[in-house]
Amino acid sequence: MSESLVIPRNAGRKEIYEALVPQLNALLEGESDFIANLANTAAALKEAFGFFWVGFYVVKENQLVLGPFQGPIACTRIAFDRGVCGHAYQTQQTVLVPDVEKFPGHIACNSLSRSEIVVPLFGSNGEVIAVLDVDSDRLNDFSEIDAAFLEKIVRLLSV
Question: Which tens digits make up the pLDDT trace of 111-127?
């Protein structure tokens, strides 16, 4: 695959995801380096949607540690029992937060973040090995469409 994406610019989110998923699959297919694949996935999501922040937190040393991302600087380490990322890790489920100010224990890595979606990424043993964290600077910016497609995207990354 080439190093550029073909993204329909005047389409809705669903159509953009439908165009992006097969391109991401082609980009990731055959590449065995986990970090490289996380990096390209974060970049592709940022390019396709212009989200405020897109990145991964990887399970290391009994916490979530900042991995590849696109956007402003971020929190480096998150405890498993803190914030939206920790909640997704503990519940092993996608967490959609329309207003981060109303999420108990939200970690404000950047005050411009207004809504968030976090999707757990599972390893071959069924354990959460990382989480995909996507932030928007707009309230209520994520829906079940985002959840379904981001879950599909993280399955492409499962090792």
Answer: 889 999 999 999 999 99
Helix, strand or coil, per DSSP, at residue 31: coil
Assess contact for 128 and 98: CB atoms under 8 A. Answer: no
Domain 13-157: assigned CATH number: 3.30.450.40
* Domain ranges across the chain: 13-157
How does pLDDT run across 2-25, given as a tens digit for each residue?
578 999 988 999 999 999 999 999
pTM: 0.94
DSSP sequence for 112-155: T--EEEEEEEE-TTS-EEEEEEEEESSTT---HHHHHHHHHHHH
